[in-house]
Write a structure and sequence with these properties.
Blueprint (H helix, E strand, L loop, with lengths): L4 H7 L4 E6 L4 H8 L5 E5 L7 H11 L5 E5 L5 H9 L4 E4 L5 H11 L23 H11 L1 E6 L2 H5 L1 H5 L6 E4 L1 H7 L11 H16 L3 E5 L3 H10 L3 E6 H18 L3
Parallel strand pairs: 1-2, 1-8, 2-3, 3-4, 4-5, 5-6, 6-7, 7-8
Helix pairs in contact: 2-3, 4-5
């Protein structure tokens, strides 16, 4: 099975720049993947993306060296297994508030005896030597990355128990939901002291348990700050925001041109 380059980077303390796809389009995913991101996440939680489209987007991303991730819509083992079978190299699971949820997440994504993932890696076999499903299954548990999102007061209260779950690779902070949960305005660049304290607590706990720490940001300036704090993976703005900002800037520039 092709090595997970992002996992290698995280183990070697190299910063991982993650892109984000919300548009349900293989063409836009392919364009994003060609821009130099280390990884690219297909967002099936808040993005307008269903399973069939996600498969086509995974195919498009694989035209590059960019590592394909998916944020799943919820704690449904069925969709987790289908996305891994389709070639996802990492899953991000939202609203992981308890160790029990984390355990089910991990178990759905690992083959027996570590979990209960069903065997049937259809497109994923293309990542293995000679297209062998057996070779894929033998290597998958060691290559696929699993991130649990901490976004609530309950998740914070159960942080150490969640991080103690075997097979969980890391924690992913969703600053928007975390801010709302702590009584602040949702933002990808929190300034509220309570939210920043919670983020620091999550980062420290991840380090203590030997897990990777990832976080969503509002762009490269915030991402650089988060990398300097010790986060291993930072997500930049999604494709919708990049499209909207780029178009708006060009329209405004055109309207201000003087003859």
């Amino acid at each position: 099975m092709r090595a997970n380059r992002v996992k290698e980077m995280l183990f070697n303390a190299l910063p991982v720049v993650n892109g984000w796809c919300s548009l349900p389009c293989a063409y836009s995913a392919e364009v994003m993947a060609h821009q130099g991101y280390d990884s690219l996440t297909i967002d099936m939680q808040h993005g307008a993306i269903g399973y069939e489209t996600a498969v086509m987007m995974l195919c498009a991303i694989s035209t590059t060296a960019t590592v394909p991730f998916v944020r799943v819509p919820w704690h449904d083992p069925g969709i987790m297994m289908k996305l891994l079978d389709a070639g996802a190299y990492g899953l991000i699971c939202p609203m992981v508030n308890t160790a029990e949820i984390a355990e089910r997440f991990v178990a759905a994504c690992r083959y027996p005896p570590r979990g209960f993932r069903s065997f049937g890696p259809n497109r994923a076999t293309l990542y293995s030597e000679a297209g062998s499903s057996a070779a894929y299954a033998a290597a998958a548990d060691g290559e696929i990355l699993l991130f649990a999102m901490i976004e609530t007061r309950e998740g914070l209260a159960n942080l150490d128990e969640i991080l103690s779950v075997p097979g969980l690779d890391g924690i992913y902070i969703g600053p928007g939901d975390l801010s709302l949960a702590l009584g602040a305005q949702p933002t990808m660049n929190p300034r509220d002291a309570t939210v920043l304290e919670a983020m620091a607590k999550i980062l420290q706990a991840a380090r203590r348990h030997g897990r990777f720490a990832a976080v969503h940001t509002d762009g490269p300036v915030t991402a650089r700050d988060r990398f300097s704090e010790g986060f291993g993976l930072c997500t930049l703005q999604n494709d919708v925001r990049l499209l909207a900002d780029g178009a708006k800037n060009q329209v405004e520039a055109a309207r201000t041109l003087k003859s």
